[in-house]
Structures are given as structure tokens and as C-alpha cells.
């Protein structure tokens, strides 16, 4: 490895790390255990496989998710480029046809002359060279054991995925197309009156859940951002109406009024033949999903192409062991990237891979590593991973709360977010223009 780096794992973070190194003319050996071995939640042999939602959240630069993607685009992100080319209608969000997206990423990575892909499981942490470990929240048992043995600080929580149904099985007589506040019509909406909602709610909170013995014998700790809908509902009768089933910004054309509650369906593929139940991550038994969700208007005869599932998600106690450049504090040639570091979300994982890949190259070349300004969303996430917040370390996605405040307080939230975004991109521009991070425009 004297003339290159290793990257272990070809998920979102691993692909970005490998791509960033290749863009700088550095040889990369990329290890991916599929198809030799699959995690409990992965099915495709392709890279950057989407397990949960097919949405990468909002595109507006004035939003936290949109700002992160714009920063990544300006740093030469492969995955943002592929996502734009594989997009499906999703209102103001960037959502993709998951199969096309993963296929395109795989082709780009496999076709790059600087990247050598090896399909095998790595079970131990390499002892030499420069390595980026991006094995994801579903790290194999062998590698998870090696990480736990080295650090003794492994934490686990559980992640849940939402069901996917066919478009042709939907009862369109009960469904209307609209996005909140008339921002396009990409979403399908299943409206419910109070009686329908209460009936559904009663069945949901008493429905039978699937056992978790395949993943963990103890009680799972569930991350708030991917809370199973039945767990959320148990918190109170109106919890869903202020969460994934909130009716604000929507009007049912059949009644002319705002519904009591609404389930939104988002296109899952470019052909519009599949739809995802937005915010309905679940661990109910498959038969219970069909029965209980069938009480929602429009889903009476829904055909499920994928039922919701719940799976293990493992992450490090990163503030104890990682620097803001994503390298180990006591072993600077070893980097971690992706959700295993405690960033939460597809694009957050990819962004960490960009930073880790850039810095792995710099370490290989004997240069000091680079950390983006804390005023950028990527830089703020990097610092969160390294320093954490208050209390026990928990995963964090992109949000404006982790950015330093503006010098002048702006009361209006929309204007404040716009100002934070503008500052972030200005500081990122200054940072990249100073050649602390450089992108090579070479034909790879």
C-alpha cells in the first residue's frame, strides 16, 4: 500500500472516499463483502445500496439537507452527481430510483482506472498503511468484533425501514396528489377523518411486532430520526398527527377541508410504479402491516413489494477516538467514515466519506489533514463526531442547530437559515480556493 490507500466498504461513505482519492490520482483498493456475504438488510450486489427511504431530503440550499448536498457537489461528490441523474419526482426533495442510482455508482467506481475493487469480507483492522473503514451501520459480525476488541466502545441502536407498495394496487378514488403548500404534486396523500384515524390508531398500538432475536437479545435503543411508527404512536394518540401523518399544508379536494390526518406516499422509482409509505418505518409482523395499514384510505388492497423491517445499526463512541478529520486520535493512518462514526443519514455518510478520502490522501502524501470550517454543514458534522454534544453520544444528521450562530440574530427563521447557508457556502469557497482541498479535473 505504499502507493495507495485501502477503503473497506462500498456504501455511501466508502464510495465517496474511494472516488475522492481516485480524483487525486491515488490508487485505491476498495473491498466490498457483497456478494460473498450480505448483511440482514442488504439484497443488491451493487454499491451504495439504499436500505431505507429513497429520498435524500430537501434540495433547497436554505435547508440543512440542501446545504449539505450543495457543499458536497462543490467538493466533487460522486453520489450527488449520480442522484441528480437518477432522480424521481418528490416535490422539493431529491429522491432517486434506488436501483438506477446504485447501478450508476457501481459503474462509475468499477470503471475508474485508479480503483481496484475486491469482493471479499475483511474481518480484521489492517495494521499498516492508510485505510478508511466505511463498513456502515450493519458492519459484519467479524469486523464489528475486531472494532469492539480494539476500542471497547461499540454502541448499538436499531434502524427501521418503511414499506413499499405498487401504484396499481392503490385505491386512487380515496387518494389525492399534492405536496404541502402546493409545492408540486409528487406525493400521493391518503386522507383520514377523525373516526378513521382513531380506528387505525387503536389497531396500530395493539398490533403484534416482529421479534428482534436475529439481531440482539436485549432491548433496542431506537434513534429518534428513524423511529418505528408503532413506537411513536405509543407515545400518545396525537403523536402521529404532529409527526409523519401531519395534515398541515394539505387540503382534500373531495371535501375542500384539511384532513384530520394524512399518510403521504412518495415515488420509489422513475417509472412511478412503486410508492414508499413516508415516515412509516416499522417492526410489525408482515401480516400485521398488511392488516393495519390496510385501514388507511387508499391502502385497502395495497400490494407490498417490500414490508417494513427493523435492523441493527452500530456506531462508535466517536468523540473518544476520532479527530475532526475522521482519523483515529492515536493511529492517524486509520480513518473511519459513514454512519459507523455517528453521522446519521445517507448524504451525511457520504459527506464524511469525502472528508475521510481527502484526508487519507493527504496523510499518504505526508501533508497535514484538512478540516472544513465549522460554519459549513460538513465541517460542523465533522466537529460533532469528534467532540459530541451534551450527554451520551448519539447520531446526528445535518441541521442548522450544529452551526455557530450568526453575528447578528435574525428573528425570521427562513431568513436566518438563508443567511446561515450563504455564510457556509462563502466559507467553503474561501477554503477550497485556498487549495486546502483541491479537486483534480482529470479524465478517470
Q: How does this structure look, described?
A:
The chain has about 450 residues and is of the alpha+beta class. The strands form four sheets. The protein has a six-stranded mixed beta sheet, covered by helices on one side. It has a six-stranded antiparallel beta sheet with strand order 10-11-12-13-9-14. Strands 3-5-4 form a three-stranded antiparallel beta sheet. The chain is globular, with a radius of gyration of 22 Å. About 30% of the residues lie in helices and about 15% in strands. Mean pLDDT is about 90; it is low at about 215-220 and about 440-444. It has two domains: about 5-155 and about 315-435, FAD/NAD(P)-binding domain (3-Layer(bba) Sandwich); about 165-310, Elongation Factor Tu (Ef-tu), domain 3.
Order of helices and strands: EHEEHHEEHEEHEEEEHHEEHEEHEEHHH
The spatial strand order of the largest sheet comes to 6-2-1-7-17-16
Our measurement of the CA-to-CA distance between the termini, rounded to an integer number of angstroms, reads 20 Å
How many β-strands, per DSSP? 17
Q: What is the 3D form?
A: globular
Helix/strand-derived class? alpha+beta
Task: Provide the residue-averaged pLDDT.
Answer: 89
Largest sheet: 6 strands, mixed
The tally of domains stands at 2
Task: Give the name of the CATH architecture of the largest domain.
Answer: 3-Layer(bba) Sandwich
Helical amount: 25-40%
Which regions are unreliable across 5 or more consecutive residues at pLDDT < 50? 213-219, 438-444
Strand content: 15-25%
**Treating each run of at least 4 consecutive H or I residues as one helix, how many helices?**
12
Could you state the CATH homologous superfamily of the largest domain? FAD/NAD(P)-binding domain
Amino acid at each position: 500500500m505504499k502507493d495507495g490507500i485501502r477503503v473497506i466498504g462500498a456504501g455511501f461513505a466508502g464510495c465517496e472516499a474511494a472516488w475522492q482519492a481516485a480524483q487525486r490520482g491515488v490508487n485505491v483498493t476498495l473491498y466490498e463483502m457483497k456478494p460473498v456475504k450480505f448483511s440482514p438488510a442488504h439484497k443488491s450486489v451493487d454499491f451504495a445500496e439504499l436500505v431505507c427511504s429513497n429520498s435524500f431530503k430537501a434540495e433547497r440550499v436554505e435547508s440543512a439537507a440542501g446545504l449539505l448536498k450543495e457543499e458536497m457537489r462543490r467538493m466533487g461528490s460522486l453520489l450527488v452527481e449520480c442522484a441528480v441523474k437518477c432522480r424521481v419526482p418528490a416535490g422539493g426533495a431529491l429522491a432517486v430510483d434506488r436501483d438506477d442510482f446504485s447501478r450508476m455508482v457501481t459503474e462509475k467506481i468499477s470503471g475508474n482506472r485508479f480503483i481496484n475493487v475486491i469482493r471479499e469480507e475483511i474481518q480484521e483492522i489492517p495494521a499498516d498503511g492508510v485505510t478508511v473503514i466505511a463498513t456502515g451501520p450493519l458492519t459484519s459480525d467479524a469486523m464489528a468484533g475486531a472494532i469492539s476488541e480494539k476500542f471497547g466502545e461499540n454502541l448499538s441502536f436499531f434502524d427501521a425501514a418503511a414499506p413499499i407498495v405498487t401504484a396499481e394496487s392503490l385505491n386512487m378514488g380515496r387518494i389525492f396528489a399534492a405536496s404541502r403548500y402546493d409545492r408540486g404534486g409528487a406525493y400521493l396523500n391518503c386522507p383520514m377523518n377523525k373516526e378513521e384515524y382513531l380506528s387505525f390508531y387503536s389497531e396500530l398500538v395493539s398490533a403484534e411486532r416482529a421479534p428482534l432475536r436475529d439481531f440482539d437479545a436485549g432491548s433496542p435503543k431506537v434513534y429518534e430520526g428513524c423511529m418505528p411508527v408503532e413506537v411513536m404512536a405509543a407515545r400518545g394518540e396525537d403523536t402521529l398527527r404532529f409527526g409523519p401523518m401531519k395534515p398541515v399544508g394539505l387540503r382534500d379536494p373531495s371535501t375542500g377541508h384539511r384532513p384530520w390526518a394524512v399518510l403521504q406516499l412518495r415515488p420509489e422509482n422513475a417509472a412511478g410504479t412503486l410508492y414508499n409509505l413516508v415516515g412509516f418505518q416499522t417492526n410489525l409482523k408482515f401480516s400485521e402491516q398488511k392488516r393495519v395499514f390496510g385501514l388507511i384510505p387508499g391502502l385497502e388492497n395495497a400490494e407490498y413489494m417490500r414490508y417494513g423491517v427493523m435492523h441493527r445499526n452500530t456506531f462508535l463512541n466517536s468523540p473518544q477516538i476520532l479527530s475532526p478529520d475522521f482519523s483515529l486520535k492515536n493511529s492517524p493512518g486509520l480513518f473511519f467514515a459513514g454512519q459507523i462514526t455517528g453521522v446519521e443519514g445517507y448524504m451525511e455518510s457520504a459527506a464524511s466519506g469525502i472528508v475521510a478520502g481527502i484526508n487519507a490522501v493527504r496523510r499518504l502524501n505526508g501533508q497535514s489533514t484538512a478540516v472544513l470550517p465549522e460554519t459549513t454543514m460538513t465541517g460542523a458534522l465533522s466537529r460533532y463526531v469528534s467532540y459530541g454534544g451534551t450527554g451520551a453520544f448519539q447520531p446526528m444528521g445535518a441541521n442548522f442547530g450544529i452551526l455557530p450562530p450568526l453575528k447578528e440574530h435574525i428573528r425570521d427563521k427562513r431568513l436566518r437559515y438563508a443567511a446561515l447557508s450563504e455564510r457556509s457556502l462563502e466559507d467553503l469557497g474561501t477554503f477550497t480556493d485556498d487549495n486546502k482541498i483541491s479537486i483534480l479535473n482529470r479524465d478517470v
